[in-house]
Specification:
With 332 residues, the protein is of the alpha+beta class. It has two domains: 166 residues, Clavaminate synthase-like (Double-stranded beta-helix, 4-Layer Sandwich); 137 residues, Clavaminate synthase-like (Double-stranded beta-helix), CATH 3.60.130.10. It is 26% helix and 24% strand. The strands form seven sheets. The protein has a six-stranded mixed β-sheet with strand order 1-4-5-18-9-21. Strands 13-14-12-17 form a four-stranded antiparallel β-sheet. Strands 8-19-11 form a three-stranded antiparallel β-sheet. The longest helix is centred in the C-terminal third of the chain and has 14 residues. It is globular.
Length: 332
């Protein structure tokens, strides 16, 4: 669709049209009648700044935007795109995943083995102050596999409430407590493998405890290993604009029961805030529903994806044939 702007909306076979007619995710290409954005990075940045309210309205409506065909080649280019949006930066304090700063506001995505799946989650939903927006950039596209599926969170809530109403009601009543065992050094074999030193950006246990407390968490030490325990957090969030309930949690990625026994997940766990275990049957259904409802558009070099972290969950499919390099940035 030609909008008269430097962007044009298109549809891809992988997208899903919702009951209200909204296509998920939105896909924007350079407008061929104003093609400077297709050849010059600064023109793309200027277009973002000039049309930010319109882009934000699309993000609010659709939940995610895929920018394809724009001149974004390197992590430095990607950093310029992130900066052009002007969203405040979020520090990755208390994060569970091992990450490394690449340039500016750009970090590696989860550094665990690309050949292992990462289940669906809202980024840092195990903390009281998660990012509201996420950016991903395809620096090197996978040859086979390695997609980043996304799914609308309110749809997951509806299906869970319909199938397991008692389970959802119990979760809403008692909320969730997340736990993670962290060691001195990062564990690259785990998608939640950041050490306590990396997570809290210090090698001082007292400072780590202070920073954990600011995140409404606590640390229980066993030698140089620590059990990181979150305050009990809600399982859902209500969208301010629509009033819809979203499945805002990290249950699928933190759970380590039989439903996810084949997933590398052994250093994390989750339970209800009253200390009760989470039901396996419900989690098994949750994992099934997320895969049924998700959208997975294959990465192409130069793609930039902007995700509303409050309304959309994301995951990572195993890489089958390398390479794959997808750096990320988180905003508040």
């Amino acid at each position: 669709m030609n909008t008269g702007k430097p962007f044009q909306e298109v549809e891809l076979p992988e997208q899903k049209r919702q009951d209200d007619g909204v296509v998920f995710p939105a896909v924007l290409l350079p407008n061929t009648s104003t093609n400077a954005t297709a050849t010059e990075l600064n023109a793309f940045e200027d277009a973002i700044r000039a049309h930010k309210p319109w882009l934000e309205s699309i993000l609010l409506k659709s939940g995610a935007i895929l920018f394809r065909g724009f001149p974004v080649i390197s992590p430095s280019d990607f950093n310029c795109v992130v900066e052009a949006f002007g969203f405040p930066e979020l520090s990755y304090m208390g994060g569970a995943a091992p990450r490394t700063q690449v340039v500016g506001r750009v970090y590696t995505a989860n550094e665990s083995s690309l050949y292992k799946e990462i289940p669906f989650h809202h980024e840092m939903a195990y903390l009281p102050n998660p990012p509201t927006k996420l950016f991903f950039f395809c620096e090197e596209e996978p040859r086979i596999g390695g997609e980043t599926p996304i799914v609308l969170s309110h749809i997951i809530y509806i299906r869970m409430k319909d199938k397991h109403p008692d389970f959802v009601s119990k979760m809403e009543e008692h909320v969730l407590t997340y736990m993670k065992i962290a060691c001195d050094d990062d564990d690259p074999s785990s998608y939640a493998g950041s050490s306590w030193k990396t997570a809290f950006k210090t090698d001082d246990k007292n400072i780590a405890e202070e920073r954990a407390a600011k995140l409404a968490g606590k640390l229980k030490w066993t030698g140089n290993s620590v059990k990181m325990i979150s305050s009990s957090l809600p399982v859902k969030r209500i969208e301010e604009e629509s009033g819809r309930k979203t499945w805002f949690n990290s249950l699928a990625v933190a759970y380590c029961g039989p439903a996810t026994e084949n997933v590398d997940n052994h250093n994390t766990s989750v339970e209800l805030g009253n200390g009760s275990p989470v039901g396996d049957d419900a989690v098994k259904y949750l994992l099934k529903v997320m895969k049924e409802e998700c959208v997975a558009i294959p990465w192409k070099k130069g793609n930039v994806v902007l995700v509303n972290n409050l309304t959309v969950l994301h995951s990572r499919r195993p890489l089958i044939k390398p390479p794959r390099r997808i750096p990320a940035s988180m905003c508040k």
